[in-house]
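## retry 2 of 3
previous attempt timed out at serialization; input unchanged, resubmitting
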Amino acid sequence: MLEFSNYAHVEVNRRGTNAAKKYEYEYWSTKYQWRREMRKEGDLREASYHLVNLKTGKTVAHLVPDILTPLEAVEEASKGGWIPPSSMWINDSFVYDKMPDIADVIVATGLAVLVDDCIHRRWHSKGRSQRAPVAKSIELMGPKKLFQRRWSS
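## retry succeeded, writing output
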């Protein structure tokens, strides 16, 4: 839940599967949706986000990762960076002509979407799950193993 200086409360909801991830919110009776677009080139995976006004279907804003040279990418990784340097712009002037304070909402929701998606892609991916070793106890042993066990030396 985000709260703004005009007392508006905005709740961003994550929807969709991994391939078609979307983040939706409503601001003054208009529904918006940040849509994620994945691009893969070799080992490189980039996510860009596009804000769509669901009433009109027009793209309102974009949030795209900056292109880094290989040296810059190595430097960013060595610093522990897990959110890529990105650029955001609003390309629909009608939106902020109609509601001047919507730029705050677009920037805040875009940052929330970027951080949330980076967290989920980095730490919640299904391929990286670690399993804790299960301790063998009497309840977990089968009957054969239990009766063949030597209890004393």
